[in-house]
Amino acid sequence: MASSIETADADTPTKPNSDTQEHSNNLPDAVQPLRVNWIYSVTIGLIHVLSLLAFFPYFFSWTGVIVMLLGIHVFGQGITIGYHRLLTHRSFRCPKWVEHCFAILGISCFEDSPVRWVVVHRIHHVHSDEKPDPHSPIVNFIWSHFGWLMVRNRVTHSIGATDKFAKDLLRDPFYMYIEKRPYVQLLIALAQIPVFFLAGYLGSLWAGSGQAAALQLGLSLIVWGVYVRVVAVWHITWSVNSLSHMFGYQNYKTGELSRNNWFVALLTVGEGWHNNHHEDPSAASVQHRWWEIDISYYEIRLLEKLGLASEIIVPRHLRRK
Known about the structure:
The chain has about 325 residues and is mainly α. It is about 55% helix and about 0% strand. The protein has helices at about 25, 40-50, 60-90, 95-105, 115-125, 140-145, 160-165, 165-170, 175-180, 180-205, 210-240, 260-265, 275-280, 295-305, 315-320. The chain is globular. The termini are close together.
């Protein structure tokens, strides 16, 4: 497999970074002058603060930690498989109810609506590591990791961008309904809090624990299973935008800064092989060398075996054979 991959060399073009240009010169024009996006900023700040409850012994439980670790993967795949590979790049097909379940998992990660996420990511691919890129590290690391979320972007939230980059999603009444009623997205995301609490509370009572122990476990699942898990998924997702555009190696000369980063690939069960993805965005797999393990692709193949996925697009170098 490796023989079919063009390895990038030292002549790979690079974009200017914050060491060679002024920070403000690299900011997208659509965010200038800078204006705080209060909805995103307050949400991100509040959930980070709530996640700090995990440091209080009362909210600790091994059950909560296990639920959090499992949740990082299950809900995180709402972003990786759902928002990214399915909705943004249409790298495979599945029944609508499966697609919508992935979308609901993504919404539960508090990473915006499916339509808004897709718009931002498709703009990123069109202008990757150029000034219009919403989250390029040519500004700096903090900007690409989460700083871009804290300010208003006139393009990514415009009707014109939505019509241009997400028209296919808006043909689906499910996404149109959510987009027209932002409170529905909020209700879906918040609904997981009572679900996790009741799972812990009722499960503890069923196991024979008293009211106090049941209450403690229910609250533990909220703190660990929701707050800590959401923050973890955020930073794992954001690391693709930041670390995978700054550190790692390139298999391909893609003309931008995307890198294959093994650490990010481990955290994201595949997404860190980001240079491979930018070389062939439509492919369902980012595993181009044998050691570039892509667990998310294996899970898509599992869906296929279960009759829940079809028309899976393999990488270009395999399509040519």
